[in-house]
Amino acid sequence: MPAMIVAYDRQRGIGKGKEQLWRPYEMASDKERFRMISREMGTIIVGSNSLIDEQIDLIQRPFPKVDQVIMLSRRDKSEFTIPDIDIAHSMEEALEMARHDPLIIGGAQVYRAGLPYADRIYATEIDADLPHDEATRFPELLPDQWRETERTFVPAGKLNDDTESKKQNIYPSYEVTYERIARS
Predict the structure, then answer these.
(1) Buried b vs exposed e over 142-157: b needs ≥16 C-beta within 10 Å?
(2) Is the dihedral of CA 4, 6, 12, 14 positive or negative?
(3) Are 39 and 75 a contacting pair, CB within 8 Å?
(4) What distance in Å separates the CA atoms of residue 91 and residue 19, rounded to the nearest whole number?
């Protein structure tokens, strides 16, 4: 059962150019949720731009405790120097390669390709309007195909009382889970 995990703003914006709209330490609760869910799934499907993005620091630490990473790319594996990454050239190929239930983690093109296959979406809905590109928006979820099953409010601010800690949420957000109820 493929699932997706995504964080987006009120307009479903996820990025501007090839950059995220926030740094992982700026939305620490989202980062922790991502770690927890990705470890449960075992296989990650990610686009080449997202994998190589320095903002999420995956080159140094490509998904600890994840059994398999599949990168969706039009390019050949010989063009990359990332060890232990499988290359797929379509979402269908990536899903066939997956050894476990896959977690699709973006970017925008990968979300669009994966949405027809996903049965669950773990969304962090950031309660802010951030400047983003139209091309880097998460697809709209149709109410006749998706049902919200969980919603938890996460306030802005430090995650603990330690004033030295960088762990904070600079925006309030909602951690939401959607389940597919029908396919088009």
Answers:
(1) eeeebeeeeeeebeee
(2) negative
(3) no
(4) 22
Interval 141-164 mean pLDDT: 85
At residue 85, the pLDDT reads: 76
Residue 63 C-beta-side C-alpha neighbours within 13 Å: 27
**Cβ–Cβ under 8 Å, residues 73 and 87:** yes
Residue 107 pLDDT class (50, 70, 90 cuts): confident
> Are 44 and 63 in contact, with CB atoms under 8 Å apart?
yes
pTM: 0.85
List the one residue out of 81, 84, 55 whose CA is nearest residue 68: 84
- Dist. CA 105–CA 95, nearest whole Å: 13
Structural domains of the chain, ranges and CATH numbers in brackets: 3-180 (3.40.430.10)
What gap in Å lies between CA 25 and CA 12, rounded to an integer?
Answer: 20
User: Encoding tokens for residue 141?
Assistant: 């979820």
Count CB-CB contacts under 10 A for residue 91.
22
User: Residue 168 in contact with residue 157, Cβ under 8 Å?
Assistant: yes
Residues 29-39 have pLDDT tens digits of 888 888 888 88
114 prior amide bond cis, ω within 30? no
Report the C-alpha gap between 43 and 178 in whole angstroms. Answer: 20
